[in-house]
Design a protein that fits this description.
The protein is 48% helix and 13% strand. The chain is α/β, with parallel strands linked by helices and 453 residues long. It has 2 domains: 240 residues, 3-Layer(aba) Sandwich (Rossmann fold); 124 residues, Jelly Rolls, CATH 2.60.120. The strands form 3 sheets. The protein has a 4-stranded parallel sheet with strand order 2-1-3-4. The chain has a 4-stranded antiparallel sheet with strand order 5-12-7-10. It is globular.
Amino acid sequence: MKAVFIVGEQRSGSNLLRLMLAQAGIAAPHPAHLLTRMMPLVASFGDLSNDSNWQQLVDDSCVLIERNPVPWNPLKRLDRANITQRCRDRSLVAIFGAIMDTYAEAHNQSMWACKSMGYIEFAPQLDAYFKDPKYIYLYRDGRDVTLSFTRAVIGEKHPYHIAKGWAKLQRMCLTERERIGPQRFFSLSYEELLANSEQVLRSCCTFLDIPFRDEMLSFHDSRDAVSTASKSQLWQNLDQPVMKDNSRKFLRDMSEESVRIIESVAGDVLDQLGYDRVFVQPGEEQAFTPEDLSAFAQENEQAKEAKKALMDSEDLERRKHQLSLLTERVYFLKGLSHGQILRFLAYLEERHYEPGDTVMYQGEETQDIFFVISGSLEVLQDDKKLAELTDGAPFGELGFISKEPRTATVRALSAARVFHLRRQDFAALEENDPGIAVRVLWLISEHLVSRFA
């Protein structure tokens, strides 16, 4: 299959472009952000040459797609064996490619487009796996992107944090544009797409070596557009014609202070992309103090919580359902957000055990705690079997809490993967990320109450 990646930043019209391309005969599903969400977790699946670990990664990746808030019709359920067979190596990129090929085949297309905008981060891996993939860099004025994010139910909310993230992604795109070259890298602005839709789309089709179709301009009538618009307020305009005046809104709806922050943080990128500054000229950028940054961070978190409270309950449930696969098998991750899970993983050490290996000895004075990722283990006290532990269960929690010697021995019954959290690493977590530490302690307490009951 021919692979196309739409890159840049969200809130830049990527769903609009995706629906337009779909009318040109390109398979372009609503993104599940598979690489962004799963790549940081790949190490926790262990050695992928192990069939069990590899199949678990395949299955979890398929579940993420199957639970996408906007369904990948007609793929109600992905054939795991078929996905595995299509992979040319054992990597997450290979799984992603196999799933996209399957989607394109289901729609009788020979080209697919992925609009997970942040995939520019993985451009070297994508280039290495796919045959001459093409990139469409869709960019929008960072001040309008910031305004859009402040109103959206997703993403950061303070202008400083939004602008910083926007600038980082644009710099990546500009760097990759130089590396890849114009034969495989096409740039277009959101503003130009709105103002001159047909001309821009014809140029884009020439780049992709496909014919332009008039249906691309009536994208809003497609079943995909209507379905996507109904799933979230994020995409509520997709079943409407192009909004030609949907630019430079920051001049009317954003405070001067917010614009100054954006132009101080991302002014150089605005310059490179041809957007005129309004308040902060080159060399006049404001330097922010640690106190400023602390205040920005607090305001950002408060605004995110306020937005979440206003989120449509069905939309929120669809998103939670998709990401819950990260916590279903590992109980102690329950209730943590995707970002919190990634931060927590930095404090954990993964260990692997073969059947018969002893993980923990009765009488030991260690105070660490363990969590089962996969496999089964038995709990022995004075050589008498007390229980079996399976996916998600913690053990060693009594010593972790009370600092008393181990009351039992734990031994692997099958090949097992276990997360190990040292007491001193948990102390560092308490200091650096107390919210996660409290959540983990709460889950351990819940487990202990359940056991004692």
